[in-house]
Amino acid sequence: MSTAAVAEHGTSHDDHGGGHGHTSTGLSNNKLAMWLFLGSECLLFGGLISTYMLYRGRHVKGPGPDQVFSIPYTSVSSFVLLMSSLTMVLAVAEAQKRNIDKAKLWMTVTAVLGATFVGGQVFEFTEFYRKGLGYTTSLFGSSFYTLTGFHGVHVTVGIIMLMATVGMLKSNKVPGDKAEVIELVGLYWHFVDIVWILIFTLVYLIPA
Amino acid sequence: MSTAVEHASLGTDPNAEHTEHAGHGNSHYYLVALALAILTGLEVLLSYIDIGAAFMPLLLTLMMIKFIMVVLEFMHLRKDAKVFHFLFWSGFLLAIAVYIGFLATFKFFLQP
């Protein structure tokens, strides 16, 4: 890239600022990759949700959905995850205003809310197991634990991403545009939230 | 080097992206979160009352409203480049189409 072109864009290859360097689309390649990844994740969770829908009535042995689910409890954990999306978007907003300290604070709050959700899910699984629903008890149990377990793993990965980003921001090890890095973590986090919006309605609220 | 015409065709304006997002006041996000909380409350309420055949369509509508609100407002897709819309919604719609086909194969929709 010529000096003139760099000056025109106000950025260079090493600077992933607002102009995202020189890309053929004019967009950040990182963001493009994240959206592509999220689009493909729809297929993964689509498969898991469909399998659950197909097998939720198959429980010759062990309890069925109506006997184990606690709607009030899951509603509270859903609310916690929804609010973590709010704190995440506030982190992104602060990062875009270059208030990195506030962004770190909101990201930490998001991670704490996420951890609360995962803790709630572990408690829920323990309760279900006590009620006689193991992973191999029935097709309902297998498909339920696989779906919600995969989601829980995604939330856990999100928490690790959040805390790693906060740590890297603290030690100033985030290269390039910090706001974009936080936005990418935010995209992943919101995706985990929208998957739960689907799971909460399709798995918990619709009777088998 | 990409041109302004190419960016226009992709719905991208690399210089505008961050400033557009930052242009929102945070109160907008609080309002969206409040709406999401109210819709979730409505969903839970619906699961406790008997509204007959309207139950399923209403519940699915509320679910999709929440889903779209998070995607458009929290993930900023409403103001983002068209190519991101394409990548996400094509994956989402493909998933729906594939798995409706999958469930139809297993006669899921004929189950009592």
TrEMBL record, chain A:
GO terms for cellular component: plasma membrane. This is Unannotated protein. GO terms for molecular function: cytochrome-c oxidase activity. SUPFAM superfamilies: Cytochrome c oxidase subunit III-like. GO terms for biological process: aerobic electron transport chain. Residues 1-23 are annotated as: Disordered. Keywords: Cell membrane, Membrane, Transmembrane, Transmembrane helix. It comes from freshwater metagenome. Residues 1-208 form the Heme-copper oxidase subunit III family profile domain. It holds the Pfam family COX3. The chain crosses the membrane at residues 32-55, 75-93, 105-123, 143-169, 181-206. The keyword Transmembrane helix applies. It is found in: Cell membrane. The lineage of its organism: unclassified sequences, metagenomes, ecological metagenomes. It is a multi-pass membrane protein. Belongs to the cytochrome c oxidase subunit 3 family.
Automatic annotation (TrEMBL), chain B:
It is found in: Cell membrane. Its main location: membrane. The chain crosses the membrane at residues 29-49, 55-74, 86-110. It is a multi-pass membrane protein. Pfam families: COX4_pro. GO terms for cellular component: plasma membrane. Keywords: Cell membrane, Membrane, Transmembrane, Transmembrane helix. This is Unannotated protein. It comes from freshwater metagenome.
